[in-house]
Request: fold
Amino acid sequence: MLAERGGWVELLWAPALLFAVIARVRSTLYTRRLLSSFEVGAPVVSVGNLAAGGTGKTPMIAWLAGRLRARGLRAGIVSRGYGADGREGDRPPNDEARMLAGMLPDVPHLQDRDRVRAATQLADSGLDVILVDDGFQHRRLARGVDLVLLDALRPFGLPIPAGGGRAVEAPLPRGLMREPMSALRRASAVVLTRVDAVSEAQLVQLEQRIHQVAPGVPLVRAMHAPVGYRVASDPDRTRRPLEDLRGLEVDLFSGIGNPGAFESTASALGVRLVSHRQFPDHHAFAPGDLAGLGRDRAVLTTAKDAARLEGLPQVDAPERLLVLDVDLTVTRGEPVLDALLDALPPTQRSRERASIHEGLHG
Reply:
């Protein structure tokens, strides 16, 4: 189903068509190996989107890093870095980097427009697996596993119509699709996120649509589950129980790809929602953006937004600024992801470590 007709937005069909043609041609060139993909000396797992916007890639990266750690494998993370103009050393880390640093303090993370360069650097340091954030369209970097995340609330970037039916499918800039649905055929698995926010009937309809265009590609279901909250000014990042939020009168603020999902999550926790101050995705907060918040009641935000406030004046009463911590939970298809990770080839250094370990216990 294409976007509804009418109004000035129809003028965007011409550039959208051009964008779609360029995306198809580029993908075909890589598929036919007329454009080169580069190996970096360690297996690469990409986590990406089909459409622009937030789907939960950062929690998925954290989940994968945990599963790899449980296997005794050392992972590193590569991302472009939103708004990046150079290498990691040329600028401060962005919100995803700061958020991942809090969640995974022992996992190296490089941000670089040249992800092949960053991945090579991490592989050369002896890491066993490279996790690439938002890498589905970055085919210059060869990968062994391609995970594509679709938000069940807005699988093609734009929300599902309130009255039901299929979500709008349209290329950028008419819609939010980076590639057509057929691109899912090259995915190792499709992960539907926020599945708890839609009905089973909607999930089945979406899965049927995916099976039609990408038969044989495994489907996984996942949800983003709040696991606690913390006071932003607490240097120890002490996590507090969610039950404490029930009945609390709060204002929200967010600058993420899907603010509606954050609002729904907060409401489900039983807070008394007064207002939600929304900013564009990856918004660079400036002094004054949060003026008036925290004066009369608590303020709740996401971990990603809180990471962007470092070094800036915050709300009127910093002790009232609360951060909601959310983890990804796989609700169906976990064996699929485990099998993909188990099939990753070992690096030479990991084989050497295993040989030394066996010798010590031989």
Q: What stands out?
A: The two ends are 62 Å apart (CA to CA).
